[in-house]
Design brief:
Elements (H helix, E strand, L loop, with lengths): L5 E3 L4 E6 L2 E9 L3 E8 L9 H15 L3 E4 L2 H9 L15
Length: 97
């Protein structure tokens, strides 16, 4: 799924509109780190891969910005577990099993 994800710094989240609904990942960002704290996909859109597509877009942006990732959101952590190639972004010492 191709999402048009934008960073909304004023609301501290990455967001996209899908079928007139807002999906987003909230974050806390420092100069060198980004904490992904919460993923929100409306229940009507669940199970369609939208959350995973959103996480992928965000991880690509985190990599572009050369930020260290701290995944506090369980959905993001689960994505990283299924896609270990992205664990390279995760802060050393954080174990995702």
């Amino acid at each position: 799924m191709d999402l048009k994800v934008t960073d909304n710094p004023s609301k501290k989240r990455y967001e996209a509109v899908v079928d007139d609904s807002l999906v987003f990942i909230e974050y806390i960002k420092t100069k060198e780190k980004i904490y992904l704290t919460h993923t929100e996909v409306p229940s009507a859109l669940e199970g369609k891969g939208i959350g995973s597509s959103l996480v992928l877009e965000v991880l690509e942006d985190v990599e572009r910005q050369d930020l260290t990732l701290i995944p506090l959101c369980p959905f993001v952590a689960l994505y990283l577990k299924k896609h270990p190639e992205w664990k390279k972004l995760v802060m050393k010492g954080i174990n995702i099993e």
